[in-house]
Amino acid sequence: MVKEVIEDRISKIKLNKNELTTLSFFSGALGLDIGLEKEGYNIVLACEFDKACRNTITLNKPEIGLIGDIRNYSAEEIIKFSGLKNKNQVDVIVGGPPCQAFSTAGKRLGFADSRGNVFLKYLEVIEEISPKYFVIENVRGLMSSILQIDEKDSIIEQIPDCILNEKGSSLYYVIKRLESAGYNINFDLYNSANFGTPQIRERVVIIGTKGDKKINRLTPTHTENGEFGLPKWQNLKDAFNSLNGIKNHEFITYSDKRKKLYENLKSGQNWRDLPLDLQMEALGKAFFLGGGKTGFMRRLDLNKPSPTVVTNPAMPATDLCHPTEIRPLSVEEYKAIQQFPIDWILAGNSSDKYKQIGNAVPVGLGQAIGREIKNHLKNIDNKDFENFKHSRYLNTKYEDFIKKFEKLNIPKEVTYSLFD
Fold this sequence. Notes:
Elements: E1 20-25, H1 31-38, E2 41-47, H2 51-60, E3 65-67, H3 75-81, E4 92-95, H4 114-129, E5 133-139, H5 154-158, H6 161-164, H7 169-180, E6 184-191, E7 199-200, E8 202-209, H8 236-241, H9 256-262, H10 276-283, E9 306-307, H11 331-337, H12 350-358, H13 363-377, H14 398-406, H15 412-419
Parallel strand pairs: 1-2, 1-4, 2-3, 4-5, 7-9
Antiparallel strand pairs: 5-8, 6-8
Protein backbone atom coordinates (compact mmCIF):
# COMPACT_ATOMS: atom_id res chain seq x y z
CA MET A 1 0.00 0.00 0.00
CA VAL A 2 1.31 3.45 -0.92
CA LYS A 3 1.58 5.52 2.28
CA GLU A 4 3.22 8.78 1.25
CA VAL A 5 1.18 11.85 0.44
CA ILE A 6 1.28 12.38 -3.32
CA GLU A 7 2.34 15.88 -4.32
CA ASP A 8 0.73 17.93 -7.08
CA ARG A 9 2.34 17.44 -10.46
CA ILE A 10 2.26 18.87 -13.97
CA SER A 11 0.85 16.62 -16.68
CA LYS A 12 3.29 14.73 -18.88
CA ILE A 13 0.56 13.41 -21.15
CA LYS A 14 1.01 14.31 -24.80
CA LEU A 15 -1.82 16.06 -26.58
CA ASN A 16 -3.50 14.26 -29.45
CA LYS A 17 -5.31 16.37 -32.04
CA ASN A 18 -7.66 13.45 -32.72
CA GLU A 19 -8.84 13.28 -29.10
CA LEU A 20 -10.73 15.72 -26.90
CA THR A 21 -8.44 17.32 -24.33
CA THR A 22 -10.22 16.86 -21.01
CA LEU A 23 -9.81 18.10 -17.43
CA SER A 24 -11.26 15.92 -14.66
CA PHE A 25 -12.40 17.27 -11.28
CA PHE A 26 -13.46 15.37 -8.15
CA SER A 27 -11.80 12.48 -9.95
CA GLY A 28 -11.95 9.85 -7.20
CA ALA A 29 -10.87 6.44 -8.48
CA LEU A 30 -11.33 7.65 -12.11
CA GLY A 31 -14.52 5.76 -13.05
CA LEU A 32 -15.83 8.54 -15.30
CA ASP A 33 -12.35 9.02 -16.75
CA ILE A 34 -11.99 5.34 -17.68
CA GLY A 35 -15.30 5.53 -19.54
CA LEU A 36 -14.28 8.68 -21.39
CA GLU A 37 -10.88 7.24 -22.31
CA LYS A 38 -12.64 4.22 -23.80
CA GLU A 39 -14.38 6.69 -26.10
CA GLY A 40 -11.13 8.38 -27.13
CA TYR A 41 -10.86 11.29 -24.69
CA ASN A 42 -7.43 12.51 -23.57
CA ILE A 43 -7.58 13.15 -19.80
CA VAL A 44 -4.62 15.37 -18.96
CA LEU A 45 -5.53 16.49 -15.43
CA ALA A 46 -7.12 14.92 -12.34
CA CYS A 47 -8.27 17.00 -9.37
CA GLU A 48 -8.67 15.13 -6.08
CA PHE A 49 -7.79 15.87 -2.44
CA ASP A 50 -8.56 12.50 -0.80
CA LYS A 51 -5.28 10.75 0.01
CA ALA A 52 -6.33 7.22 -0.95
CA CYS A 53 -7.83 8.44 -4.24
CA ARG A 54 -4.70 10.44 -5.07
CA ASN A 55 -2.61 7.34 -4.49
CA THR A 56 -4.97 5.30 -6.68
CA ILE A 57 -4.67 7.89 -9.46
CA THR A 58 -0.87 7.83 -9.20
CA LEU A 59 -0.65 4.03 -9.21
CA ASN A 60 -2.75 3.76 -12.37
CA LYS A 61 -1.99 7.03 -14.19
CA PRO A 62 1.48 8.23 -13.07
CA GLU A 63 1.83 10.77 -15.91
CA ILE A 64 -1.50 12.55 -15.47
CA GLY A 65 -1.46 16.07 -14.02
CA LEU A 66 -2.67 16.08 -10.41
CA ILE A 67 -3.96 18.82 -8.11
CA GLY A 68 -5.77 18.78 -4.75
CA ASP A 69 -8.68 20.78 -3.34
CA ILE A 70 -10.19 22.69 -6.26
CA ARG A 71 -10.71 25.74 -4.03
CA ASN A 72 -6.95 26.27 -3.78
CA TYR A 73 -6.27 26.84 -7.49
CA SER A 74 -6.88 29.65 -9.93
CA ALA A 75 -7.84 28.95 -13.52
CA GLU A 76 -4.30 29.85 -14.56
CA GLU A 77 -2.80 27.32 -12.12
CA ILE A 78 -5.20 24.64 -13.32
CA ILE A 79 -4.06 25.20 -16.90
CA LYS A 80 -0.40 25.06 -15.80
CA PHE A 81 -0.81 21.71 -14.05
CA SER A 82 -2.69 20.43 -17.10
CA GLY A 83 0.48 20.96 -19.14
CA LEU A 84 -1.39 23.25 -21.53
CA LYS A 85 -0.34 26.56 -23.06
CA ASN A 86 -3.70 28.26 -22.56
CA LYS A 87 -7.34 27.59 -21.76
CA ASN A 88 -8.28 27.52 -25.45
CA GLN A 89 -6.77 24.03 -25.61
CA VAL A 90 -9.40 22.65 -23.22
CA ASP A 91 -12.21 20.83 -25.01
CA VAL A 92 -14.08 19.27 -22.08
CA ILE A 93 -14.33 19.73 -18.31
CA VAL A 94 -15.97 16.92 -16.34
CA GLY A 95 -16.71 16.36 -12.67
CA GLY A 96 -19.09 15.13 -10.02
CA PRO A 97 -18.87 17.61 -7.11
CA PRO A 98 -19.35 15.96 -3.68
CA CYS A 99 -22.98 14.91 -3.52
CA GLN A 100 -23.57 14.75 0.24
CA ALA A 101 -24.81 18.35 0.30
CA PHE A 102 -27.71 17.28 -1.93
CA SER A 103 -28.20 13.64 -0.92
CA THR A 104 -31.69 12.68 0.21
CA ALA A 105 -30.00 10.80 3.07
CA GLY A 106 -28.23 13.87 4.50
CA LYS A 107 -29.19 17.23 5.99
CA ARG A 108 -29.38 18.69 2.48
CA LEU A 109 -27.89 22.11 3.16
CA GLY A 110 -27.17 22.50 -0.54
CA PHE A 111 -24.77 25.30 -1.38
CA ALA A 112 -24.73 26.43 2.26
CA ASP A 113 -22.80 23.23 3.02
CA SER A 114 -18.99 23.53 2.66
CA ARG A 115 -19.17 20.70 0.12
CA GLY A 116 -21.79 22.69 -1.75
CA ASN A 117 -19.33 25.57 -1.88
CA VAL A 118 -16.94 23.23 -3.69
CA PHE A 119 -19.72 22.86 -6.26
CA LEU A 120 -19.80 26.66 -6.65
CA LYS A 121 -16.03 26.70 -7.21
CA TYR A 122 -16.50 24.10 -9.92
CA LEU A 123 -19.01 26.42 -11.63
CA GLU A 124 -16.41 29.22 -11.45
CA VAL A 125 -13.80 27.00 -13.10
CA ILE A 126 -16.19 26.19 -15.95
CA GLU A 127 -17.01 29.87 -16.40
CA GLU A 128 -13.37 31.00 -16.35
CA ILE A 129 -11.84 28.30 -18.55
CA SER A 130 -14.93 28.20 -20.82
CA PRO A 131 -14.42 24.78 -22.46
CA LYS A 132 -16.38 23.66 -25.51
CA TYR A 133 -18.28 21.17 -23.30
CA PHE A 134 -18.78 20.59 -19.60
CA VAL A 135 -20.27 17.68 -17.64
CA ILE A 136 -21.74 17.73 -14.13
CA GLU A 137 -22.73 14.42 -12.52
CA ASN A 138 -24.66 14.36 -9.25
CA VAL A 139 -27.26 12.60 -7.13
CA ARG A 140 -31.02 12.78 -7.64
CA GLY A 141 -31.28 15.00 -4.54
CA LEU A 142 -29.95 17.92 -6.59
CA MET A 143 -33.27 17.95 -8.45
CA SER A 144 -35.25 18.62 -5.27
CA SER A 145 -32.76 20.61 -3.18
CA ILE A 146 -33.87 24.12 -2.15
CA LEU A 147 -31.26 26.79 -2.83
CA GLN A 148 -29.40 27.93 0.27
CA ILE A 149 -26.44 30.20 -0.30
CA ASP A 150 -24.52 32.70 1.82
CA GLU A 151 -24.16 35.53 -0.67
CA LYS A 152 -26.48 36.60 -3.50
CA ASP A 153 -25.08 37.05 -6.98
CA SER A 154 -26.53 38.60 -10.15
CA ILE A 155 -28.26 35.34 -11.10
CA ILE A 156 -29.98 34.90 -7.74
CA GLU A 157 -31.13 38.51 -7.77
CA GLN A 158 -33.07 37.80 -10.99
CA ILE A 159 -34.84 34.76 -9.54
CA PRO A 160 -38.15 35.50 -7.75
CA ASP A 161 -38.68 34.24 -4.19
CA CYS A 162 -41.41 31.88 -5.39
CA ILE A 163 -38.71 30.01 -7.31
CA LEU A 164 -35.96 30.30 -4.69
CA ASN A 165 -38.22 28.59 -2.15
CA GLU A 166 -39.25 25.83 -4.53
CA LYS A 167 -37.82 22.30 -4.43
CA GLY A 168 -35.25 22.04 -7.19
CA SER A 169 -34.15 25.68 -6.99
CA SER A 170 -30.51 24.57 -6.51
CA LEU A 171 -30.48 22.89 -9.90
CA TYR A 172 -32.47 25.76 -11.42
CA TYR A 173 -29.78 28.17 -10.22
CA VAL A 174 -26.98 26.01 -11.67
CA ILE A 175 -28.73 25.88 -15.04
CA LYS A 176 -29.46 29.62 -15.20
CA ARG A 177 -25.94 30.50 -14.12
CA LEU A 178 -24.29 28.32 -16.78
CA GLU A 179 -26.73 29.43 -19.46
CA SER A 180 -25.78 33.01 -18.65
CA ALA A 181 -22.16 31.96 -19.26
CA GLY A 182 -23.10 31.05 -22.83
CA TYR A 183 -23.88 27.34 -22.56
CA ASN A 184 -26.68 25.43 -24.24
CA ILE A 185 -27.68 22.82 -21.66
CA ASN A 186 -29.47 19.51 -21.49
CA PHE A 187 -29.88 17.04 -18.63
CA ASP A 188 -31.90 14.17 -17.22
CA LEU A 189 -31.89 11.62 -14.42
CA TYR A 190 -30.27 8.49 -15.84
CA ASN A 191 -30.40 4.88 -14.70
CA SER A 192 -26.94 3.40 -15.29
CA ALA A 193 -28.49 0.01 -16.09
CA ASN A 194 -29.64 1.51 -19.41
CA PHE A 195 -25.99 1.91 -20.43
CA GLY A 196 -24.75 -1.61 -19.84
CA THR A 197 -23.93 -1.26 -16.15
CA PRO A 198 -25.08 -4.25 -14.03
CA GLN A 199 -26.47 -1.85 -11.44
CA ILE A 200 -29.57 0.28 -10.85
CA ARG A 201 -27.91 3.60 -10.06
CA GLU A 202 -29.70 6.84 -10.90
CA ARG A 203 -27.70 10.02 -11.34
CA VAL A 204 -28.29 13.48 -12.76
CA VAL A 205 -26.01 14.22 -15.72
CA ILE A 206 -25.86 17.81 -17.00
CA ILE A 207 -24.04 18.48 -20.26
CA GLY A 208 -23.43 21.94 -21.65
CA THR A 209 -22.09 23.01 -25.02
CA LYS A 210 -20.96 26.29 -26.50
CA GLY A 211 -22.65 25.26 -29.74
CA ASP A 212 -25.99 26.65 -30.90
CA LYS A 213 -27.60 23.22 -30.91
CA LYS A 214 -28.51 21.56 -27.61
CA ILE A 215 -26.81 18.22 -26.99
CA ASN A 216 -29.08 15.16 -27.04
CA ARG A 217 -29.93 13.25 -23.92
CA LEU A 218 -27.81 10.12 -23.49
CA THR A 219 -28.53 7.28 -25.90
CA PRO A 220 -29.40 3.99 -24.12
CA THR A 221 -27.64 0.75 -25.05
CA HIS A 222 -29.79 -1.59 -22.91
CA THR A 223 -33.37 -1.76 -21.63
CA GLU A 224 -34.99 -3.68 -18.79
CA ASN A 225 -36.94 -6.09 -20.99
CA GLY A 226 -35.36 -5.63 -24.40
CA GLU A 227 -37.55 -2.71 -25.51
CA PHE A 228 -36.48 -0.65 -28.57
CA GLY A 229 -34.72 -3.75 -29.89
CA LEU A 230 -31.86 -3.28 -27.41
CA PRO A 231 -30.23 -5.97 -25.24
CA LYS A 232 -31.69 -6.57 -21.77
CA TRP A 233 -30.06 -5.14 -18.67
CA GLN A 234 -26.86 -6.76 -17.45
CA ASN A 235 -27.21 -8.57 -14.12
CA LEU A 236 -25.04 -9.63 -11.20
CA LYS A 237 -24.24 -12.93 -12.85
CA ASP A 238 -22.82 -11.06 -15.84
CA ALA A 239 -20.74 -8.90 -13.51
CA PHE A 240 -19.36 -11.84 -11.58
CA ASN A 241 -18.54 -13.70 -14.81
CA SER A 242 -16.33 -10.80 -15.83
CA LEU A 243 -14.05 -11.59 -12.86
CA ASN A 244 -12.81 -14.65 -14.78
CA GLY A 245 -12.83 -16.94 -11.77
CA ILE A 246 -10.85 -14.75 -9.37
CA LYS A 247 -10.89 -16.63 -6.05
CA ASN A 248 -9.02 -14.33 -3.68
CA HIS A 249 -11.60 -11.75 -2.66
CA GLU A 250 -11.10 -8.88 -0.22
CA PHE A 251 -14.13 -8.15 1.94
CA ILE A 252 -15.22 -7.02 5.37
CA THR A 253 -17.17 -9.48 7.52
CA TYR A 254 -20.50 -9.65 9.31
CA SER A 255 -20.90 -10.27 13.03
CA ASP A 256 -21.89 -13.80 14.06
CA LYS A 257 -25.39 -12.52 14.90
CA ARG A 258 -25.80 -11.04 11.43
CA LYS A 259 -24.51 -14.21 9.76
CA LYS A 260 -27.13 -16.31 11.56
CA LEU A 261 -29.88 -13.97 10.39
CA TYR A 262 -28.68 -14.25 6.79
CA GLU A 263 -28.82 -18.04 7.01
CA ASN A 264 -32.61 -17.59 6.89
CA LEU A 265 -32.59 -15.65 3.61
CA LYS A 266 -32.26 -16.92 0.07
CA SER A 267 -30.99 -15.05 -2.99
CA GLY A 268 -33.28 -12.07 -3.75
CA GLN A 269 -34.87 -12.00 -0.29
CA ASN A 270 -34.65 -9.32 2.41
CA TRP A 271 -35.65 -8.70 6.02
CA ARG A 272 -39.36 -8.82 5.15
CA ASP A 273 -38.94 -12.52 4.32
CA LEU A 274 -37.87 -13.29 7.91
CA PRO A 275 -40.27 -14.40 10.66
CA LEU A 276 -41.62 -11.44 12.63
CA ASP A 277 -39.37 -12.02 15.65
CA LEU A 278 -36.28 -12.12 13.43
CA GLN A 279 -37.42 -9.01 11.55
CA MET A 280 -37.46 -7.13 14.83
CA GLU A 281 -34.07 -8.56 15.77
CA ALA A 282 -32.56 -7.66 12.39
CA LEU A 283 -33.79 -4.05 12.32
CA GLY A 284 -33.75 -3.20 16.01
CA LYS A 285 -35.24 0.26 16.68
CA ALA A 286 -35.50 0.90 12.93
CA PHE A 287 -38.29 -1.71 12.78
CA PHE A 288 -40.65 0.77 14.44
CA LEU A 289 -39.72 3.72 12.24
CA GLY A 290 -41.49 4.81 9.05
CA GLY A 291 -40.17 4.52 5.53
CA GLY A 292 -39.72 1.57 3.23
CA LYS A 293 -36.46 0.37 4.76
CA THR A 294 -35.66 -1.24 1.41
CA GLY A 295 -31.90 -1.28 2.01
CA PHE A 296 -31.99 -3.30 5.22
CA MET A 297 -30.90 -6.93 5.34
CA ARG A 298 -31.00 -7.79 1.64
CA ARG A 299 -29.43 -10.74 -0.12
CA LEU A 300 -28.86 -9.84 -3.76
CA ASP A 301 -30.31 -11.65 -6.77
CA LEU A 302 -27.88 -13.05 -9.36
CA ASN A 303 -30.45 -12.59 -12.12
CA LYS A 304 -31.01 -8.88 -11.51
CA PRO A 305 -28.77 -5.82 -11.60
CA SER A 306 -27.24 -4.84 -8.29
CA PRO A 307 -28.82 -2.03 -6.29
CA THR A 308 -26.65 1.08 -6.07
CA VAL A 309 -23.30 0.11 -4.59
CA VAL A 310 -22.60 2.38 -1.64
CA THR A 311 -19.43 3.30 0.23
CA ASN A 312 -19.81 0.39 2.67
CA PRO A 313 -21.69 -2.83 1.79
CA ALA A 314 -22.32 -3.78 5.41
CA MET A 315 -24.06 -0.72 6.79
CA PRO A 316 -27.44 -1.67 8.36
CA ALA A 317 -29.59 0.51 6.09
CA THR A 318 -27.69 -0.20 2.85
CA ASP A 319 -26.71 -3.85 3.19
CA LEU A 320 -25.37 -5.66 0.12
CA CYS A 321 -25.06 -9.36 0.92
CA HIS A 322 -23.65 -11.81 -1.64
CA PRO A 323 -26.38 -13.89 -3.36
CA THR A 324 -25.01 -17.30 -2.34
CA GLU A 325 -22.38 -16.64 0.32
CA ILE A 326 -22.93 -15.16 3.77
CA ARG A 327 -20.75 -12.09 3.41
CA PRO A 328 -20.92 -8.58 1.97
CA LEU A 329 -19.95 -8.03 -1.64
CA SER A 330 -16.19 -8.02 -2.06
CA VAL A 331 -13.98 -5.21 -3.35
CA GLU A 332 -13.48 -7.22 -6.54
CA GLU A 333 -17.23 -7.61 -7.01
CA TYR A 334 -17.68 -3.89 -6.42
CA LYS A 335 -15.17 -3.22 -9.20
CA ALA A 336 -17.01 -5.57 -11.55
CA ILE A 337 -20.38 -3.96 -10.84
CA GLN A 338 -18.91 -0.51 -11.49
CA GLN A 339 -17.13 -1.92 -14.57
CA PHE A 340 -13.59 -1.10 -13.47
CA PRO A 341 -10.80 -3.10 -15.12
CA ILE A 342 -9.90 -6.22 -13.15
CA ASP A 343 -6.28 -5.05 -12.88
CA TRP A 344 -7.20 -1.54 -11.63
CA ILE A 345 -5.15 -0.88 -8.50
CA LEU A 346 -6.89 0.61 -5.47
CA ALA A 347 -4.84 2.25 -2.71
CA GLY A 348 -5.66 2.13 1.00
CA ASN A 349 -7.36 -0.35 3.29
CA SER A 350 -10.59 -2.24 2.58
CA SER A 351 -12.76 0.66 3.75
CA ASP A 352 -10.86 3.06 1.47
CA LYS A 353 -11.34 0.74 -1.50
CA TYR A 354 -15.07 0.29 -0.96
CA LYS A 355 -15.48 4.04 -0.58
CA GLN A 356 -13.56 4.83 -3.78
CA ILE A 357 -15.54 2.38 -5.90
CA GLY A 358 -18.87 3.22 -4.21
CA ASN A 359 -18.40 6.91 -4.99
CA ALA A 360 -17.32 6.34 -8.58
CA VAL A 361 -19.26 6.97 -11.78
CA PRO A 362 -19.96 3.62 -13.50
CA VAL A 363 -17.68 3.19 -16.48
CA GLY A 364 -20.64 2.46 -18.79
CA LEU A 365 -22.28 5.74 -17.85
CA GLY A 366 -18.99 7.53 -18.51
CA GLN A 367 -18.85 5.94 -21.96
CA ALA A 368 -22.43 7.03 -22.70
CA ILE A 369 -21.52 10.62 -21.79
CA GLY A 370 -18.46 10.48 -24.01
CA ARG A 371 -20.40 9.07 -26.95
CA GLU A 372 -23.11 11.74 -26.72
CA ILE A 373 -20.62 14.59 -26.81
CA LYS A 374 -18.92 13.04 -29.84
CA ASN A 375 -22.32 12.53 -31.51
CA HIS A 376 -22.99 16.22 -30.98
CA LEU A 377 -19.69 17.10 -32.63
CA LYS A 378 -20.66 14.91 -35.60
CA ASN A 379 -24.23 16.28 -35.65
CA ILE A 380 -25.69 12.81 -35.04
CA ASP A 381 -29.24 12.70 -33.60
CA ASN A 382 -30.85 9.94 -31.50
CA LYS A 383 -34.47 10.62 -32.47
CA ASP A 384 -35.41 6.97 -31.90
CA PHE A 385 -35.01 7.59 -28.17
CA GLU A 386 -36.54 11.06 -27.76
CA ASN A 387 -39.32 9.66 -25.55
CA PHE A 388 -37.19 7.11 -23.75
CA LYS A 389 -37.89 6.99 -20.01
CA HIS A 390 -34.46 7.15 -18.41
CA SER A 391 -35.47 6.67 -14.76
CA ARG A 392 -38.31 5.71 -12.42
CA TYR A 393 -39.25 9.34 -11.83
CA LEU A 394 -41.39 11.83 -13.76
CA ASN A 395 -40.48 15.27 -15.12
CA THR A 396 -36.73 14.83 -14.82
CA LYS A 397 -35.59 16.00 -18.25
CA TYR A 398 -34.58 19.60 -18.93
CA GLU A 399 -37.79 20.72 -20.66
CA ASP A 400 -40.13 19.30 -18.00
CA PHE A 401 -38.00 20.59 -15.12
CA ILE A 402 -37.83 24.15 -16.47
CA LYS A 403 -41.53 24.14 -17.39
CA LYS A 404 -42.35 23.45 -13.74
CA PHE A 405 -40.81 26.78 -12.77
CA GLU A 406 -42.32 28.66 -15.67
CA LYS A 407 -45.76 27.69 -14.38
CA LEU A 408 -45.15 29.46 -11.08
CA ASN A 409 -46.70 32.87 -10.55
CA ILE A 410 -43.76 34.96 -11.81
CA PRO A 411 -44.14 38.71 -12.36
CA LYS A 412 -44.20 39.55 -16.07
CA GLU A 413 -41.13 41.77 -16.04
CA VAL A 414 -39.09 39.04 -14.32
CA THR A 415 -40.37 36.36 -16.68
CA TYR A 416 -38.88 38.20 -19.65
CA SER A 417 -35.43 38.50 -18.05
CA LEU A 418 -35.33 34.81 -17.17
CA PHE A 419 -36.78 33.02 -20.13
CA ASP A 420 -36.47 35.22 -23.21
